[in-house]
User: What shape does this take?
Amino acid sequence: MKTERNILTDEKWNAIIHNDASYDGTFYYAVKTTGIFCRPSCKSRVPNKKNVLVFDTADAALERNFRPCKRCRPNGLRLPDEEWIAQITEYIDSHYHESLTLSVLADMCHGSPYHLQRTFKKIRGLSPIEYIQIKRLTKAEHLLLYTDKTVMEIALTVGIPNTAHFATLFKKRTGSSPTAYRKTAGKGRGEIHYE
Assistant: This one.
C-alpha cells in the first residue's frame, strides 16, 4: 500500500521539473519508460508525469529494478558502462525507425552526447549513429526480400525519410541499389513470399 511519502505530490513534481537540489535525499523519482531513477535535482529532460514513480530511498528504486541515472548518480551509485550501453542498444533496437540523434539518445539515457559517443564506441566498437544505420539497413534488406513495399515505403519504415539518401547508404552497405538487391538476392532465395 502506498504511503503519502511515495505519492507524486504537486510539491515533488515541482521539485523534479525545477531540478530543486533542496529535495535531494528526501526522495528519488523513477521513470517507468526508461527504467532509470534520479535525484530531484537531475538536469535530464522532464519526464512525462504519468510515467513517474516516487521512492523514499535509492535502495527502494533499485529493489524495483530501476537503474541509477548516469548523469545525477543518485546516492553515489553508478551504472556500469557495459550495462548502460546495453540499455541504450536495447532502446535503439526498439526505436531505430524514429528520429534518433546522439543528443536524443544522450538525453534519453541521462548522459552527455560526448560521453555516450565515447563509451558506446569503446564498448561496441562503433558509434551509436553507425549502429543505428546498420540496424536500419539490415531491416531494409529483410523488407526488400519479404515484402512488396516500394523502396520509398521501406526507407520511411526504417527511419530514413530521404529515399535518395537511403539508396546511397544501402548501396554503400550491400554493393547494389535496393531495387537490384531485391531482384538478385530474391532470385538466390528462390520464390519470395511476401508478408
